Amino acid sequence: MTASLGATAAFVLGLAALAALPAVGQRLRAGGTERCALDGVAVAAGRRVRVVELSGEHRVFCCVDCANAWTTSSAARPAAIFVTDETTGAELRAEDAWFVRSSVVACPETGCTVHVFASRAAAQANADSFRGVLCTGDERPLRVSR
């Protein structure tokens, strides 16, 4: 009887350990690398895009293309979108940013070729140096409709 009691206790403890695994994994990942809300790619600080929904919830993306894909396909309307300037690493509102599409890959994991700049001069210099074009009008990514 003692052996069956020990086996039952071991079985119950095993089930409890299995049930706890998801929570333990989530806790371990909480302090880890930020991940793209669209595809799970690690988000590099220099190309981070942050979308703030009307609800106040924040979503982080690894590149302009992922954020653009999510914003154009999601039913949730963004209240604000923030991008990261490639030159300084500073976060700025997407509507204040200059975007360049070029032959140079900005995010190797996704193949995104859209680069972000805080100043038109920096964007134009990048476009001139790397056979890129300034994104304007309908070509401009991450537009927030008001």
Q: Overall 3D geometry? A: elongated
Given helix and strand content, the structural type is alpha+beta
Terminal-residue CA separation: 72 Å
The succession of helices and strands, N to C, reads HEEHEEEEHE
Largest sheet: 4 strands, antiparallel
Number of domains: 2
Helix percentage range: 25-40%
Whole-angstrom Rg: 22 Å
Unreliable runs, pLDDT <50, ≥5 residues? 20-29
User: Strand percentage, roughly?
Assistant: 15-25%
Describe the secondary-structure layout:
Layout: H1 2-30, E1 49-53, E2 58-61, H2 64-73, E3 78-84, E4 91-93, E5 98-101, E6 114-117, H3 120-129, E7 133-134
Antiparallel strand pairs: 1-2, 1-3, 3-4, 5-6, 5-7
Give an overview in words.
The longest helix is centred in the first third of the chain and has 29 residues, at 2-30. The chain has helices at 2-30, 64-73, 120-129, and strands spanning 49-53, 58-61, 78-84, 91-93, 98-101, 114-117, 133-134. The radius of gyration is 22 Å and the shape is elongated. The model is unreliable at 20-29 (pLDDT under 50). A hairpin with a 4-residue loop joins strand 1 (49-53) and strand 2. The protein has 2 domains: 1-32; 45-139, no CATH class. It is of the alpha+beta class. It is built from 3 helices and 7 strands, in the order αββαββββαβ. The strands form 2 sheets. Strands 2-1-3-4 form a 4-stranded antiparallel sheet. A 3-stranded antiparallel sheet has the order 6-5-7, with helices on one face.
